[in-house]
C-alpha cells in the first residue's frame, strides 16, 4: 500500500508537468488552430529563466575583510553578493535561497514578451497554412531555441536547488495513519503539484469568469461572428498565445529543482505532452488537464516493481499504449470536440 501511495504521488507530480504543458498547447491550438511544436522549448526556457535569476542574485562584489587573513597575515578578499549587501546577511541569503520561486518575477514578463514576439513575428503567418507546415516551422524554431541555449549554457545539466526549507522530505504516511517514516516524499515535489493546481485553476478562472476570457471562448467557437461584432479577436488570441507561453515557462521554472535544466529537456516533454493533448481531445482544455494527470499516474503505476517483473519496461511505453487504446475507441479523445482536425 505504501508503494502504491508513493507512486500515486509520483504520478501527480509527473501529471502536473504534463497537464501544464498540455494546457498551454491546447490554449494555442484551441484559439489559433496552430500545432505548436515549439511549446516544449518554452518549457525549457522557463527552466533556464530560473537558472538566470539564480545567477543574477548571486552576482557579487569583492570587499576586504580585515577579520579574515591568509597565512601571511594579509586581509582576505571576500566576494559578497549584491543582495546581501543591499538587504543584509539574513534577508539577502534568504532571497538567494528562494531564487527558484522568486524567478516567477522574471518568467512572467520574459515568457509573455517572447510569446507575443513568436505570435506576431512568425506564427500569425501560418494560421491558414496546413498543419504540416505549422509543425515544420515550429519544430525548426524549437531546434533554434535549443541550440541558442546550448551555446550560452553548455550541454550539461545545471543543478538548481530548491529552497533549503523545502529541500527535505515530508512524512506523508503519518497523515494517513502509517508508521513514522513509512511514506516520505520530497516537499518540493508536493509543492510543485500544488503550484500546478493553482496555475490550472487560475487559467480556467480567467477564461470562465472574466469578460476577456468569455470573448476568447466565443472566438474559439465562432471567430467570424465575434469579428462581425467589431471585436479584434486576433489581438486577444495573441494575448492568449502569450499566456500559454507563460504557463509553459512557469511549469519549467518550478520544475528546475526536480530535473536539472538542460538544453534538450523541452524535447523530452514535448512528445509526451502532445500524446496527452491527443488523448484528452484536441482543443479541449479540461481534456488536456485530465489526460495529463491520468497518464502521469498510469506511468507511475507502471514503474512498480511488481508490474515491471511481469511486463519489463512497460513504464516506457504505457502512455503510448493507452493513447492507442483510447484513440481506437474514442477517435476524438476523452473530451475532444466535433470537427477539430477532422476536415
Q: Which H/E pattern describes the elements?
A: HHEEHHHHHEHEHHHHHHHH
Query: Rg, please?
Result: 23 Å
- State the low-pLDDT regions, or none: none
Strand arrangement, largest sheet?
A: 1-2
Relative strand content = 5-15%
Q: How many distinct folded domains? A: 1
Given the C-alpha coordinates, what overall shape results?
A: globular
Describe the biggest sheet?
2 strands, antiparallel
- Which structural category fits the helices and strands? mainly alpha
Distance between the termini: 47 Å
Strand tally is 4
The helix fraction, in percent, is 55-70%
Number of helices: 16
Transmembrane segments: 16-35, 42-64, 95-114, 135-153, 190-216, 237-258, 270-298, 310-329
GO molecular function: transmembrane transporter activity
InterPro entries: ABC_transp_permease, BCAA_transport_permease
Organism: Meinhardsimonia xiamenensis
Amino acid at each position: 500500500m505504501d508503494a502504491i501511495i508513493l507512486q500515486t504521488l509520483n504520478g501527480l507530480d509527473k501529471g502536473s508537468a504534463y497537464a501544464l504543458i498540455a494546457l498551454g498547447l491546447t490554449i494555442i491550438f484551441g484559439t489559433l488552430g496552430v500545432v505548436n511544436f515549439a511549446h516544449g522549448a518554452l518549457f525549457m526556457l522557463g527552466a533556464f529563466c530560473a537558472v538566470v535569476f539564480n545567477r543574477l542574485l548571486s552576482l557579487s562584489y569583492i570587499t576586504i575583510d580585515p577579520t579574515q587573513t591568509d597565512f601571511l597575515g594579509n586581509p582576505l578578499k571576500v566576494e559578497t553578493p549584491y543582495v546581501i549587501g543591499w538587504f543584509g546577511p539574513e534577508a539577502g541569503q534568504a532571497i538567494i535561497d528562494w531564487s527558484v520561486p522568486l524567478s516567477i518575477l522574471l518568467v512572467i514578463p520574459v515568457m509573455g514578451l517572447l510569446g507575443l514576439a513568436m505570435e506576431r513575428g512568425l506564427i500569425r503567418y501560418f494560421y491558414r497554412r496546413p498543419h504540416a507546415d505549422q509543425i515544420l516551422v515550429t519544430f525548426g524554431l524549437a531546434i533554434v531555441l535549443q541550440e541558442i541555449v546550448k551555446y550560452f549554457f553548455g550541454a550539461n545539466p545545471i543543478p538548481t536547488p530548491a529552497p533549503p526549507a523545502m529541500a527535505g522530505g515530508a512524512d506523508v504516511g503519518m497523515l494517513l495513519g502509517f508508521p513514522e517514516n513509512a511514506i516520505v516524499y520530497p516537499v518540493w515535489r508536493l509543492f510543485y503539484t500544488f503550484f500546478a493546481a493553482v496555475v490550472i485553476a487560475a487559467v480556467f478562472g480567467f477564461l470562465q469568469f472574466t469578460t476577456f476570457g468569455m470573448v476568447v471562448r466565443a472566438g474559439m467557437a465562432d471567430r467570424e461572428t465575434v469579428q462581425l461584432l467589431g471585436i479584434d479577436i486576433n489581438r486577444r488570441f495573441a494575448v492568449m498565445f502569450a499566456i500559454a507561453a507563460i504557463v509553459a515557462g512557469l511549469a519549467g521554472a518550478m520544475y528546475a529543482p526536480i530535473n536539472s535544466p538542460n538544453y534538450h529537456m523541452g524535447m523530452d516533454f514535448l512528445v509526451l505532452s502532445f500524446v496527452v493533448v491527443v488523448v484528452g481531445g484536441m482543443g479541449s482544455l479540461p481534456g488536456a488537464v485530465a489526460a495529463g494527470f491520468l497518464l502521469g499516474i498510469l506511468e507511475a503505476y507502471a514503474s512498480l516493481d511488481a508490474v515491471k517483473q511481469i511486463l519489463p519496461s512497460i513504464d516506457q511505453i504505457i502512455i503510448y499504449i493507452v493513447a492507442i487504446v483510447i484513440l481506437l475507441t474514442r477517435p476524438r479523445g476523452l473530451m475532444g470536440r466535433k470537427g477539430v482536425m477532422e476536415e
